């Protein structure tokens, strides 16, 4: 399947999605959103695909934000009537239950940082730079920056980033808990694919429920989260993959998963 603004490749059980508008530093416009929704829908529906990686083309940017040129002349009424930006969270976060990783090469600013934060985790290259510079344009984050960044790095850093618009480099992002790992720029894709392949090799239902449980930690009380954790644990003990996983451990061999 070919798209106007992204590249999509299936590599074994991993779908690699590359934001591909390098001339605009992979800025996110309406076409990127439409292409991403379609690609993520196919990833979610394809039983052979178990994890995805999203990265940016070129070595300069993951995505330098929502497309400012597309938004500049839009009226406030249009932004509101279209519930502008809602598609990203509604389609990429709420619909997608399989794990996916953002591999951030270069700038992840504004909407770019926000899409990276929609991923289950971020692997950054040493050259990555994160920022929510919307304040400089007279606006505020619109795709989760003020909420997901604050949950990821805490109030002090999130306020600093949103109020000054300054960028955070990869080392600071790792120290602050925004990214899970920092790797050399020339190893980024290799490392992200390796992580995705590791996830894709896990029992799929267990991977999906682990994702759901960690996400729940941001949505609910500790008591409710702990109950849900026990229930999902108990549900997983009823799967064929649990029986196989424990048998394979005892027999000192890799498990062979059925996804049920
Ligand atoms: N949207 C559209 N085009 C962009 C964007 C963007 N977000 N970022 C870069 N580009 C384009 C540039 O216009 C330029 O195109 P051209 O060659 O045609 O002039 C090309 O990409 C290369 O960029 P630069 O020449 O600027 O490259 P530099 O290396 O000099 O600078 C920077 C790189 C620092 C990343 C710089 O491009 C920059 O500051 N970009 C904008 C970052 C930003 O502000 N992002 C947040 C966008 S807003 C958002 O995501 C939330 C919604 C806010 C609503 C706003 C309503 C108006």
Protein architecture, described:
The longest helix is centred in the N-terminal third of the chain and has 16 residues, at 30-45. The chain contains 12 helices and 10 strands. It is 47% helix and 16% strand. Helix 1 packs parallel to helix 4 and helix 10 packs antiparallel against helix 11 (222-237). Strands 1-2-3-5-7-10 form a 6-stranded mixed β-sheet, sandwiched between helices. It has a 4-stranded mixed β-sheet with strand order 4-6-8-9. It is of the alpha/beta class and 260 residues long. Residues 24-25, 27, 64-69, 71-72, 107, 109-111, 133-134, 137, 139, 142 line the site of octanoyl-coenzyme A (CO8). Octanoyl-coenzyme A binds at residues 24-25, 27, 64-69, 71-72, 107, 109-111, 133-134, 137, 139, 142.
Short précis:
The chain has 260 residues and is of the alpha/beta class. The chain is built from twelve helices and ten strands.
| Total number of helices | 12
Query: Beta-strand percentage?
Result: 15-25%
Give the cofactors and ligands: octanoyl-coenzyme A
Query: Which percent bin holds the helix content?
Result: 40-55%
* Principal-axes shape call: globular
Decide which structural class fits the backbone: alpha/beta
Q: Enumerate the spans where pLDDT stays under 50 for 5 or more consecutive residues.
A: none
**SSE series:** EEHEEHHHEEHEEHHEHEHHHH
Rg over CA atoms, rounded to whole Å, is: 19 Å
């Amino acid at each position: 399947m070919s798209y106007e603004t992204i590249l999509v490749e299936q590599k074994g059980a991993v779908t690699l999605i590359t934001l591909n508008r390098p001339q605009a530093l992979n800025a996110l416009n309406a076409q990127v959103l439409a292409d991403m929704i379609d690609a993520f829908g196919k990833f979610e529906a394809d039983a052979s695909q178990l994890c995805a990686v999203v990265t940016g083309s070129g070595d300069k940017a993951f995505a330098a934000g929502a497309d400012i040129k597309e938004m500049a002349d839009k009226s406030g009424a249009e932004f509101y009537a279209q519930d502008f930006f809602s598609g990203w969270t509604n389609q990429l976060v709420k619909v997608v239950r399989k794990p996916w990783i953002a591999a951030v090469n270069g700038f992840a600013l504004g909407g770019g940082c926000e899409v990276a934060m929609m991923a289950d985790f971020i692997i950054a290259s040493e050259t990555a730079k994160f920022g929510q510079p919307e304040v400089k344009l007279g606006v505020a984050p619109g795709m989760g920056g003020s909420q997901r960044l604050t949950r990821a790095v805490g109030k002090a850093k999130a306020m600093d980033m949103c109020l000054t618009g300054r960028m955070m480099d990869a080392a600071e992002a790792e120290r602050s808990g925004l990214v899970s790992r920092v790797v050399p720029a020339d190893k980024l894709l290799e490392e992200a694919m390796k992580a995705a392949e590791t996830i894709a090799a896990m029992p799929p239902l267990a991977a999906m429920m682990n994702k759901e449980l960690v996400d729940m930690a941001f949505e609910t009380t500790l008591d409710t989260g702990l109950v849900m954790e026990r229930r999902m644990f108990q549900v997983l003990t009823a799967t064929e993959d649990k029986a196989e996983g424990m048998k394979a451990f005892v027999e000192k061999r890799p498990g062979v998963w059925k996804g049920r």
